Inverse folding.
């Protein structure tokens, strides 16, 4: 068990190292001739103005909230799915009720128009 | 006998040989294990990155042929060295770092995006014998690692000092997190059928590939995985033919190349996951005696799924962002929830009648739900009202013909 996590840790370290080494090598190999015009921000072809970190649509935030609810829900459902062979029909119905409550919330969000882009 | 062992499973034989060699040098067992893991991980990661070169070439060639072009055909036979030449070129390109970037997220983003794709390769069982990685929370690990990619995209957009990169990053991450939901819900059903979250147990449980039981579930998973990879027809974050680029617009040189590599590698990685979970992974005739065949079967199955993705990319028009969000939130999410609820209920109800009856009931639910949702889509399409703009009748863009069969109608 511990060995598996060791392997995962080594793999994570290596998969971060590989692109880092590649980018570092390319940085060494590539020419470095910066100048003012080349290094200006591209934006959309025009000269940039005002702050870059702009206000964004509230819609993104709403989607993120709805996502969070469903993500937490699925994390709760995984243990039930693993223990599926051992639980009784009654517990399955309880699970369905649990999903239905969230589903009603989903329908409410839908009716409120939060899912309209 | 030694030779037969080597032929049937070269990787295990080599690792055993190395282990004994290290022991002979006086290295303790723990350290030899560490060294072997290190070598294995380094080889797998490097070969995954190098495989990307072949995938880039193959995808360009296939899309070229689908669109009645030749594709790359100058460098080497069939243009096979095109991506090698591209790699050499991109390696010696200048790294232009624009003024005013936020240095930490800007420089970390390409590394994190590539890493988030590569880490997934750690949990895929490539053959019968490579079971060191039988992680017991593999499916949750998969979903969690998927989230790191979104983090990389947000960092790229946030650090670039560019309004449009920021907007694109918001769009891309909204798309990716949305499509993670139907994916996660559909993944629950293979988990409950094999009653384990470990990838190896899921493969072992597939006496019959799960796609034969979960036809509709596999379809939902496939669509969601295409959308999560941000590939056509869901590639709004960087619509190549309409915008210059997406969140990666301020990157140049190999930093841009890393985004490109991550994009193409992710396509094959999700095909690997699909074939592990729904197509039986390394299972196939003769894997018990020759475990090395398992890797071959897995690769072949993934190549078929990967080709399907490329085929879709070459032939479908792009969705608008509101259509894409509607497909997810108003179709895939409710349908996958309904599929899960019906599957657990009827699966439990018919559990005592034996496994075959249970599987059959789940299959019938899948087919039934598929036809019901098809009917619903068609009815919605018939009731569609297209607002007329202006007095004279003239062609207007149709707002919501998501799954339109007949373009000339309505």
């Amino acid at each position: 068990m511990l060995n598996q996590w060791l392997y995962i840790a080594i793999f994570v370290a290596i998969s971060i190292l590989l692109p880092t080494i590649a980018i570092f090598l390319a940085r060494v190999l590539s020419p470095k001739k910066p100048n003012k015009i080349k290094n200006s921000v591209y934006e959309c072809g025009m000269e940039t103005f005002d702050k870059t970190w702009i206000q964004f649509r509230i819609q993104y935030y709403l989607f993120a909230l709805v996502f969070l609810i469903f993500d937490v829900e699925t994390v709760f459902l995984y243990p039930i799915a693993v223990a599926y062979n051992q639980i009784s029909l009654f517990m399955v119905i309880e699970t369905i009720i649990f999903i239905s409550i969230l589903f009603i919330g989903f329908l409410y969000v839908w009716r409120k128009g939060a899912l309209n882009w | 006998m030694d030779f037969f062992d080597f032929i049937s499973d070269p990787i295990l034989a080599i690792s055993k040989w190395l282990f004994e060699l290290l022991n002979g040098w006086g290295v303790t067992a723990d350290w030899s294990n560490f060294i072997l893991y290190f070598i294995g991980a380094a080889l797998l990661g490097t070969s995954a990155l190098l495989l990307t070169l072949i995938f880039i070439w193959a995808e360009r060639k296939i899309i070229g042929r689908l669109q009645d072009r030749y594709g790359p055909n100058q460098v080497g036979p069939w243009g096979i060295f095109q991506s090698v030449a591209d790699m050499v070129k991109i390696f010696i390109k200048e790294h232009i770092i624009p003024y005013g970037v936020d240095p930490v997220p800007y420089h970390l983003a390409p590394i994190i995006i590539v890493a988030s794709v590569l880490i997934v390769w750690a949990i895929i069982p490539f053959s019968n014998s490579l079971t060191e990685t039988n992680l017991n929370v593999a499916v949750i690990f998969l979903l969690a690692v998927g989230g790191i990619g979104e983090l990389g995209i947000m960092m790229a957009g946030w650090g670039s000092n560019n309004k449009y990169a920021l907007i694109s990053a918001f769009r891309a991450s909204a798309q990716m997190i949305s499509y993670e939901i139907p994916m996660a819900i559909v993944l629950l059903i293979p988990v409950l059928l094999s009653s384990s979250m470990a990838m190896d147990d899921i493969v072992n449980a597939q006496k019959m590939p799960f796609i034969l039981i979960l036809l509709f579930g596999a379809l939902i998973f496939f669509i969601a995985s295409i959308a999560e990879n941000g590939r056509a027809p869901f590639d709004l974050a960087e619509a190549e033919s309409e915008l210059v680029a997406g969140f990666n617009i301020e990157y140049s040189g190999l930093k841009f190349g890393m985004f490109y590599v991550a994009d193409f590698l992710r396509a094959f990685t999700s095909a690997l996951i699909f074939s592990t979970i729904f197509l039986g992974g390394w299972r196939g005739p003769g894997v018990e005696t020759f475990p090395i065949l398992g890797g071959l079967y897995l690769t072949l199955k993934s190549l078929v799924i990967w080709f399907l993705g490329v085929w879709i990319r070459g032939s479908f028009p792009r969705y608008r962002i509101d259509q894409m969000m509607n497909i997810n939130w108003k179709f895939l999410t409710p349908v996958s929830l309904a599929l899960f609820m019906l599957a657990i209920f009827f699966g439990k109800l018919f559990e005592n009648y034996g496994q075959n009856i249970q599987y059959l009931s789940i299959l019938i639910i899948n087919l039934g739900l598929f036809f019901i949702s098809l009917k619903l889509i068609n009815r919605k399409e018939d009731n569609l009202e297209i607002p007329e703009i202006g007095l004279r009748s003239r062609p207007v863009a149709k707002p919501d013909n998501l799954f339109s069969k007949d373009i000339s109608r309505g």
In short: Chain B is about 65% helix and 0% strand.
